[in-house]
């Protein structure tokens, strides 16, 4: 089957096709109500989730398919010591595609080696989250139009932030992009990723710990949560957790057509007062997650949409 483990598993052409389909599905979802009839999507979630798992389920149900799975490893036989490989070999016969979230980096890639059906990475540790990237791209496409010549700031936990790793890596493939990486020094993007992207795309990644350095220039502000679950000790987390708190005041000097995105969940990094600002698009973003996953599921299941 066709897996989605890393955002680069799709060519630019395939990405564009998926985005076009996502927009069509958003405009006329009823036209696709039967396209996954008879198909089953399996969810293997070894880590908590609200949006990713439930938007996948909603997508599959809207396509006329069915869903099964677990949302907590503690209620699966992983709790009895079953290996990931064995779990996948079994689930393989229960579903036509497997959607997996796991705290361990590389777990979905391993699963794909044992699966005969498509495996979709729904987030692996602090590594990658390719379907969040698809969601982010669809949001940009819908509310901004062409994805090109944008000044983008990523803000928060860039070290463990899998949504940032996947989106940054993907936006580098679009023309004319400029990036600001705003984080405490302790949470800068992994050095190997920075070096690889600079080498491959000949871009400069502007690293700073001050949002003020770029807030007036940017077109997209991608906020992220400082993730308690990725820290080894509580003390370090407490020290860094409120590094960035976006307020209405901080947006005063920003462009009128800025877009503020956040993969969610948020904790404290965007004040609720920002939600009413027309530039805040993170709830629309969560909605787009359903439509792009409809497009993705129909693509990996090989549904003929003609
Ligand atoms: N954006 C995202 O991955 O959210 P969940 O953790 O709720 O799935």
Automatic annotation (TrEMBL):
| Keyword Transferase among UniProt keywords | yes
Source superkingdom: Bacteria
Q: Which UniProt keywords apply?
A: Pyrimidine biosynthesis, Transferase
Report domain Aspartate/ornithine carbamoyltransferase Asp/Orn-binding positions. Answer: 149-299
> What's the EC number here?
2.1.3.2
Q: Where does carbamoyl phosphate bind?
A: 51-52, 101, 129, 132, 264-265
* InterPro entries, per database record: Asp/Orn_carbamoyltranf_P-bd, Asp/Orn_carbamoylTrfase, Asp/Orn_carbamoylTrfase_sf, Asp_carbamoyltransf, Asp_carbamoyltransf_Asp/Orn-bd
Aspartate/ornithine carbamoyltransferase carbamoyl-P binding domain sequence ranges? 2-141
The record's annotation in PROSITE patterns points to: CARBAMOYLTRANSFERASE
Binding-site list for L-aspartate: 80, 162, 225
One of this protein's Pfam families, by short name?
A: OTCace
Catalytically driven reaction(s): carbamoyl phosphate + L-aspartate = N-carbamoyl-L-aspartate + phosphate + H(+)
Single Gene Ontology MF annotation: aspartate carbamoyltransferase activity
Pathway it acts in? Pyrimidine metabolism; UMP biosynthesis via de novo pathway; (S)-dihydroorotate from bicarbonate: step 2/3
Enzyme class comes to transferase
> What function is annotated for this protein?
Catalyzes the condensation of carbamoyl phosphate and aspartate to form carbamoyl aspartate and inorganic phosphate, the committed step in the de novo pyrimidine nucleotide biosynthesis pathway.
Subunit-structure text: Heterododecamer (2C3:3R2) of six catalytic PyrB chains organized as two trimers (C3), and six regulatory PyrI chains organized as three dimers (R2).
Q: PANTHER family this protein is in? A: ASPARTATE CARBAMOYLTRANSFERASE, ORNITHINE CARBAMOYLTRANSFERASE, MITOCHONDRIAL
**The family this protein is said to belong to:** Belongs to the aspartate/ornithine carbamoyltransferase superfamily. ATCase family.
Q: Which NCBIfam families match?
A: asp_carb_tr (TIGR00670), PRK00856.1 (NF002032)
Protein name per its UniProtKB record: Aspartate carbamoyltransferase
The organism of origin for this protein: Anoxynatronum sibiricum
Output the lineage of the source organism. Bacteria, Bacillati, Bacillota, Clostridia, Eubacteriales
Question: Source gene?
Answer: pyrB
């Amino acid at each position: 089957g066709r897996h989605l483990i890393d955002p680069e598993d799709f060519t630019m052409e395939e990405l564009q096709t998926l985005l076009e389909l996502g927009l069509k599905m958003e405009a006329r979802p009823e036209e696709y109500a039967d396209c996954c009839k008879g198909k089953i999507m399996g969810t293997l979630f070894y880590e908590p989730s609200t949006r990713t798992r439930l938007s996948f389920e909603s997508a599959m149900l809207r396509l006329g398919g069915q869903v099964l799975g677990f949302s907590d490893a503690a209620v699966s036989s992983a709790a009895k010591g079953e290996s990931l490989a064995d779990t996948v070999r079994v689930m393989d016969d229960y579903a036509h595609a497997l959607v997996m979230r796991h705290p361990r980096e590389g777990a979905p890639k391993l699963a794909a080696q044992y699966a005969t059906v498509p495996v979709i990475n729904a987030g692996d540790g602090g590594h990658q989250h390719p379907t969040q990237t698809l969601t982010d791209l669809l949001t940009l496409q819908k509310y901004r139009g062409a994805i090109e010549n944008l000044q983008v700031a990523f803000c928060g936990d860039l070290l463990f932030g899998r949504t940032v790793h996947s989106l940054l890596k993907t936006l580098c493939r679009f023309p004319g992009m400029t990036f600001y990486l705003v984080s405490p020094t302790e949470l800068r993007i992994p050095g190997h990723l920075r070096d690889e992207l600079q080498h491959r795309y000949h871009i400069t990644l502007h690293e700073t710990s001050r949002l003020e350095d770029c807030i007036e220039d940017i077109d997209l502000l991608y906020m992220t949560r400082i993730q308690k679950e990725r820290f080894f000790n509580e003390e370090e987390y407490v020290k860094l957790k409120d590094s960035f708190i976006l307020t209405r005041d901080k947006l005063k000097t920003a462009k009128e057509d800025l877009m503020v995105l956040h993969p969610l969940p948020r904790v404290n990094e965007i004040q609720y007062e920002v939600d009413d600002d027309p530039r805040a698009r993170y709830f629309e973003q969560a909605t787009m997650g359903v439509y792009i996953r409809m497009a993705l599921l129909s693509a990996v299941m090989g549904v003929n949409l003609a």
